[in-house]
């Protein structure tokens, strides 16, 4: 075990001392690596993988996740949740784990933009991608720690960075600790309560896509399984997946 992996394990705590950890300098995608290793029978859940950079990092809806070396934490966890575990709860838990870990190590308090983005100072600093496979669920997490030299490329949109003094491997271990602890309490309301408290969209006007059309709605809450509760011209309903767009004033509050 190298120094980086030792730091991750130390930050995970004694409760998770037996969980395998691997830290790579570069890979195509941490989610892709875990998916292939799990299907080949080389690893089993739980398992934690990090990389200093990704050559083919992926976000939701097939988007590229910019992952240059020396500026971010790119990690994936392979887990084996109980049968019939709602995918929304896992995404909620991942967002909460990252928020809590960042706050513990830096004092900064990111906000959550449904469904899986974290914002700080009006900029996106973290994206989360959960994928279900036969061997379990892979949760990919990318955190922008520093602004790259020359700034983020245009395709990164509203990307920003923590720009705080933080050890990426300590952050990886702390995220893993909060996440794995939370998986053992998934049936409690701890994570969703935190999620609601740090998701400032409630009461805000948003735009969302449905049947190829953009619609407007007001956010009324978050369901227990992480769905976005909205009300529009057709009445109240819940978004389980999709994209929401926000006005500039809402972004400034994130």
Features:
alpha+beta; five-stranded antiparallel beta sheet; 29% strand; 254 residues
Task: Itemize the secondary structure elements and their pairings.
Elements: H1 3-12, E1 21-24, H2 30-39, E2 47-51, E3 72-79, H3 87-106, E4 111-113, E5 117-120, E6 123-133, E7 136-144, H4 168-183, H5 190-197, E8 205-210, E9 213-222, E10 228-232, E11 235-239, E12 244-246, H6 248-252
Parallel strand pairs: 1-2
Antiparallel strand pairs: 2-3, 3-7, 4-5, 5-6, 6-7, 8-9, 8-12, 9-10, 10-11
Largest sheet: number of strands, sense, barrel closure: 7 strands, mixed
The shape is globular
Please provide the ordered H/E string of secondary-structure elements. Answer: HEHEEHEEEEHHEEEEEH
Strand order of the largest sheet: 1-2-3-7-6-5-4
Q: If helices are DSSP runs of H or I spanning 4 or more residues, what is the number of helices?
A: 6
Multimer state = single chain
- On the 0-100 scale, what is the average pLDDT? 88
How far apart the termini lie comes to 39 Å
Helicity, in percent? 25-40%
What Rg do the Cα atoms give?
18 Å
């Amino acid at each position: 075990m190298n120094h980086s992996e030792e730091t991750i394990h130390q930050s995970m705590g004694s409760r998770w001392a037996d969980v395998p950890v691997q830290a790579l300098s570069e890979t195509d995608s941490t989610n892709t690596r875990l998916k292939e290793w799990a299907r080949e029978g080389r690893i089993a859940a739980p398992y934690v993988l990090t990389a200093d950079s990704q050559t083919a990092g992926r976000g939701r809806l097939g988007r590229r996740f910019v992952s240059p070396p020396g500026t971010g934490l790119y990690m994936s966890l392979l887990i084996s949740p109980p049968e019939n575990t709602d995918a929304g709860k896992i995404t909620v838990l991942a967002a909460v784990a990252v928020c809590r870990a960042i706050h513990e190590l830096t004092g900064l308090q990111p906000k959550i933009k449904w469904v899986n983005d974290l914002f700080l100072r009006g900029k996106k600093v973290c994206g989360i991608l959960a994928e279900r496979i036969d061997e379990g669920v892979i949760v990919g997490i990318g955190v922008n720690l520093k602004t790259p030299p020359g700034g983020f490329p245009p395709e990164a949109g509203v990307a920003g960075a923590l720009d705080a003094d933080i050890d990426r491997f300590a952050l990886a271990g702390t995220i893993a600790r909060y996440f794995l602890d939370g998986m053992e309490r998934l049936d409690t309301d701890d994570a969703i309560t935190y999620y609601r408290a740090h998701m400032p969209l409630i009461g805000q006007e948003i735009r969302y896509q449905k049947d190829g059309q953009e619609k407007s709605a007001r956010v009324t809450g978050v369901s227990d399984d992480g769905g976005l509760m909205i009300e529009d011209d057709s009445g109240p309903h819940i978004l389980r997946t999709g994209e929401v767009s926000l006005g500039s004033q809402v972004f400034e509050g994130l």
